[in-house]
């Protein structure tokens, strides 16, 4: 299970950026743990609300992007609690962006299907 989570999230598993429980390191870092929790919360919310506006979903990912980028370029050092929180928000946002993408793909598919039926009726009738 540990390797699957590590490969699924492409996690670095740095001990300084991971949580420990009873002396054992989590299989993924604090931010990836937050993203995983955010996925679960996002799917749960998606069960009650059909969708969240795309702008809101994108806004939920911005804190994670800012925190991760600032840390990547050594502008600041983030705490594990901040990584967890921004990961949760980012995970929720990602779930809704994937839902939007799937809905858009479905609408485009239906559009081209109907266009094909229309063109087929013009050609073959």
Number of helices: 4
What is the structural class? mainly alpha
* SSE string: HEEHHH
Low-confidence stretches: none
- Helical content stands at over 70%
Identify the strand order in the major beta sheet. Answer: 1-2
Apparent shape:
elongated
Q: How would you describe this protein?
A:
The chain has helices at 2-9, 30-48, 54-72, 80-124, and strands spanning 20-21, 24-25. The protein is mainly alpha-helical and 125 residues long. Strands 1-2 form a two-stranded antiparallel sheet. Strand 1 (20-21) and strand 2 form a beta hairpin. The longest helix is centred in the last third of the chain and has 45 residues, at 80-124. The protein starts with a helix and ends with a helix.
Keywords:
about 120 residues; mainly alpha; 4 helices; 2 strands
Give a brief rundown of this model.
With 125 residues, this protein is mainly alpha-helical.
Secondary structure: elements and pairs:
Layout: H1 2-9, E1 20-21, E2 24-25, H2 30-48, H3 54-72, H4 80-124
Antiparallel strand pairs: 1-2
Helix pairs in contact: 2-4, 3-4
